[in-house]
Amino acid sequence: MKEMKKLLALLLAVVLTLSLFAGCSSKPAATDTTDTSDTSDTSTTTDGDTADTATEEIIPLTFYMSCGVRPEADRIMEKANAIIEKEIGAHLEIIDADAEKINLMISTGDEFDLCFMANWGGYNFFENAATGAFVDMAPLFDEYAPETYSRIPEALWKGVSIGDAIYGSVNYQQWGVATQKGFAIRMDIAEEVGYDWQKLKGMAANDVLRDLETFFEPALELYPEMIGWESTATYNLFANDPLYYDMEPVGDMLQPGWVRFEEPDTVINQFETEEFAEFCEIMREYNQKGYVRADAATVQDHSPDRQAGRMLAGTWYSWPDMIDYQPTGVEELTVAGFEAANYTIPNMSMTAAGTCPAGQISTTRTVIPAAAGPTACVAISATSKHPEKAMELIELLNTNDELFNLLQWGEEDVDYYYDDNGNFQRVEGKYTFNYNEWQMGQSYSPDFSRSDFGRQLNAAQKDTAAKQEIIFEADRTATPSPVTGFTFDPEPVKTELANCSAIITEMVPVLGAGAADPAEYLPQFLQRLKDAGVDTIIAEKQAQLDAWHAAGN
Predict the structure, then answer these.
(1) Are the CB atoms for 159 and 117 separated by under 8 Å?
(2) What is the C-alpha to C-alpha distance for residues 313 and 208, in angstroms, rounded to an integer?
(3) Contacts (Cβ under 8 Å, ≥6 apart) of 237
(4) Which residue segments constitute the domains of the chain, with CATH numbers given?
(5) Rounded to an integer, what distance in angstroms lies between the CA atom of residue 317 and that of residue 184?
(6) pLDDT by residue (tens digit) across 421-469?
């Protein structure tokens, strides 16, 4: 009897293959008519009821994500589905779809099983979750995806939850989620003028900015064409990087209303803080001494300056820094120390290797940002007829390295290979997932077996793996954002937000570039915010945050 069932399943698959496309295609939902001839592969798809009745074992599952055109995808999907059918009795169809298409499917109630979701790029994770678009996964993890849940820091699950319901499976990635920020200093010039950049470790941001003046003054005397510090009409250290000041935004970054990590229950107007006033004073000094561009308040893009290697110092977001992790063989954190170890020195942003060496130093606490969880996750559609089987697929993708690597890289020595130096290389024109594997599931693996440096065949790969071990450990111990899981509803104060946003866009770039005297300009700015309703915004954010806490969060 069992053999007869397998025979029937095989016959059905052959018939359906003649009429249906599969794999990562542009295959539309049932109501769509998009042409798919360029991107389809030959894996089979079936109507859920028909498949269940005919096979009783193999459940068809659809997974919508943005993966682009995958050459020779039919070959890979055939091998992938052999694994999936054997392990969980399901047959996967991956369908290329962007945020607009997925949202359209949700709004029209189309039947599908899984999709990529995020809190950026128009995916609208929280909005969709709140309207019942997704299955609550909380009751399913223990039975169907225990390892998927257990390997991820608890704070990330709060980021994809509404109340006790979990609406997304976090795609925990090989680069981790914890964040620590700091500064990059032009190392060779710092050594030339005798500036000790390593002393900046752990300093408060404004203290770093003041100390950098002792670097900028002699450096700019030697190199007057250089720029000390970067500030533009669209970026300044305080307004755009609250972590440097041990704060976290409640809602959008540039809206009034942040909390301090040390006082997470109290919403403040960040522009009324002593830190912002001091920052404005420092930037005024920078401007008058020529440490920033004279047109910093209006220039939109600093990329040409970065690419030309003109920056003496700037922000730095990667970590661990050069003190917490010293590269293999480098015994001294100097240019000579790196050269003696025959090791490439890190570079200033947007510069070519070996041209602008950067001393990298972290200054902030290590945190898991509030948005880390929903940055990349997989949701199960409320229209799915097989949510349990979809959950099993999530677990399989996250724990079966053979399957995941097959889908992300293809077949070794066919689609990719490792060269004589141990570097991962793709074969041109062959299968690729277009580096979108982070939409499919967790690229994290304890032994780095899902990374392109997993074999650790050269020193650079070993260093990368060693750094990531530090990051993974930090993910377990980092301070979670105090507003993880909180979503601010701007509707009650949308008029005040619009008015304040216009004032911030006008005046903060001037203050952040030191283009006006803060003794006069800052009070004007703060008064205009009050006139525009900033106190109403702060009160509304506080009320919503209090209600969120009162609900047990």
Answers:
(1) no
(2) 11
(3) 205, 209, 231, 244, 279, 315, 512
(4) 2-175+374-407 (3.40.190.10), 182-250+269-368 (3.40.190)
(5) 9
(6) 777 888 999 999 988 899 999 988 777 788 776 665 677 777 878 888 8
